[in-house]
Specification:
heterodimer; A: alpha+beta; nine-stranded antiparallel beta sheet; globular; B: mainly alpha; de novo design (two linked rop proteins); 8 helices; 80% helix
Chain lengths: 313, 184
């Protein structure tokens, strides 16, 4: 697989003419957005001044109308950006990968991992699917939400997960389910109480204590089968997951089920969206696209999913 | 209800809970040892086959092969203790490792399909054995902690529970790549 530096080169060299053109569009667009914002604010203020009441409705209308106008304005630019920057970037990593800007990983696959409670709404985009080193992999941006009602009976959407969701074949056969979650209880309540809380988590299977102290500190493991959990989480895989966690720099949830690995990386924002108020040529902006894609596709190599055991050959 | 009765009930409840948790821990150890045993047996079954297929070529390692055969015969005796099984397993693991290293010196063996199949099966088994061994060690650690820590240690000594031995995991095995890496 290509290195990050090679991809950065590709971004700045091969994509440069496209980026230059997009950069012009982006400047125009940010101008138009600012202008639209000023006009909308002015109109809202005038209406507020004339009516002298109904401020909640005016604010609500202002927000709704504002976001609609914003979406309408950025739509074409976003589409153009995804097809002329993200798509070539994905193909530069591996030519066989398919990319669809509007689709996402199915809600079924999201729920199948059992990493989060059942969502009421799953949205997403930037779906990538293909084979890397003979391993089937797919990933996309996912935003899963749950509907709750507040005291006034109004609907309220709570985010369960937002970020990158990856599904890939795993290189070992197993029948039970094992989940690896970020260790929040032990770091908040200390070892003794945290551990007691973890072992009494009714929503999960049996707690599995792992024999890697660093891994134990970072994650908590639940599984239906103590031995199989350790068969999956070998010493080397624990090390690799730790380094993957450090590389991604965001909380990761991992689930092993039905011979697949499911990985959810919480970025808490929509990924692969074009920057509007910052230049596309800025190094930091470029690196975010390159790094995130590299991380997602790199999971096969990073976790050595392509080294199959005898029973899977 | 008189206070003394409440105190007696509470004490009885605590004793029952302590007793049950100790029994649960002991059974967990036995349970997991059973699957360690199954995996070890699978490996023992492989040894005669392996020895038969490599002995034709391996002239200089005859002593190594007969050592593995001897260890296997000892390990498959019906009435050996768990501790003895654990000790034998360590020896067999290292002897099999040496054979695998020795195979490297024989190109005919490396190309032999039967030997290759055996190697891969062995590698798969090593992974499973390693997993069950680690589970066993964790169960034994929980058990040993319970019989040594206050307050369950009093109960444990009444029940005459003794410390159990864990599998020593060789440093090389922590890498978890042992057999297969050698042949790729």
């Amino acid at each position: 697989m290509k290195k990050i530096s090679e991809l950065t080169d590709f971004y700045y060299k091969s994509l440069f003419p496209t980026l230059e053109k997009l950069e012009k569009d982006r400047k125009n667009l940010s101008h138009r957005i600012v202008m639209a914002g000023i006009i909308l604010t002015f109109i809202a203020l005038v209406i507020a001044y004339i009516l002298g009441s109904f401020f909640e409705f005016i604010v609500a209308g202002y927000i709704i109308l504002g976001s609609l106008i914003y979406r309408f304005l950025v739509h074409d630019y976003t589409h153009e950006f995804k097809l002329s920057v993200i798509k070539p970037l994905i193909h530069a990593i591996d030519n066989s990968l398919d990319y669809s800007p509007s689709l996402h990983i199915s809600q079924h696959l999201f729920e199948h991992s059992n990493l989060f409670s059942k969502p009421d709404r799953v949205r997403g985009n930037d779906y990538v699917k293909g084979m890397i080193d003979g391993i089937r992999i797919e990933f996309s941006d996912i935003h899963a939400e749950k509907k709750t009602q507040n005291s006034k009976g109004k609907d309220n959407w709570v985010t369960l997960f937002q970020g990158l969701y990856i599904v890939a074949e795993f290189n070992k056969n197993f029948s039970s389910q094992t989940v690896v979650l970020p260790d929040s209880a032990q770091s908040t309540f200390g070892n003794l109480i945290g551990h007691w809380l973890q072992s009494n988590n009714g929503a999960r299977d049996e707690l599995v204590k792992m024999d890697n102290p660093k891994f134990e500190e970072e994650f908590v493991v639940y599984s239906g089968d103590q031995i199989e959990a350790r068969y999956i989480l070998s010493h080397s895989l624990m090390e690799k997951l730790l380094s993957f966690r450090n590389k991604s720099n965001h909380p990761i949830h991992v689930s092993f089920k039905a011979n697949h690995i499911y990985m959810a990386i919480s970025y808490n924002k929509d990924l692969f969206e074009p920057s509007i108020f910052r230049s596309l040529l800025e190094y930091k902006v470029a690196m975010e696209y390159v790094k995130t894609l590299h991380l997602a596709v790199g999971i096969v190599e990073e976790l050595k999913l392509n080294q199959k055991l005898w029973s899977k050959r | 209800m008189p206070t003394s009765l409440i105190i007696i009930i509470v004490i009885a409840l605590v004793l029952v809970l302590m007793y049950n948790s100790l029994v649960a821990k002991k059974n967990q150890v036995e349970n997991i040892f059973a699957s360690v045993d199954t995996n070890l047996k699978k490996r023992y079954d492989l040894i005669p086959n392996l020895v038969a297929s490599v002995s034709k070529y391996m002239e200089h390692e005859k002593s190594l092969l007969s050592e593995v055969t001897r260890l296997r015969a000892e390990a498959t005796k019906p009435d050996i203790s768990d501790a003895h099984k654990i000790a034998l397993d360590a020896k067999i693991t290292s002897a099999l490792g040496s054979i695998m290293v020795a195979v490297e010196a024989y190109p005919e063996l490396k190309a032999n399909e039967n030997v290759m199949h055996l190697q891969h099966t062995l590698h798969e088994l090593e992974e499973q054995i390693s997993a069950s061994r680690r589970s066993y060690n964790q169960a034994v650690t929980d058990y040993n902690n319970a019989i040594e820590m206050v307050p369950t240690n009093f109960m444990a000594s009444l029940m005459s529970y003794r410390r159990k031995q864990v599998f020593e995991i060789a440093e090389g095995e922590r890498q978890n790549v042992n057999v297969k890496e050698l042949f790729n």
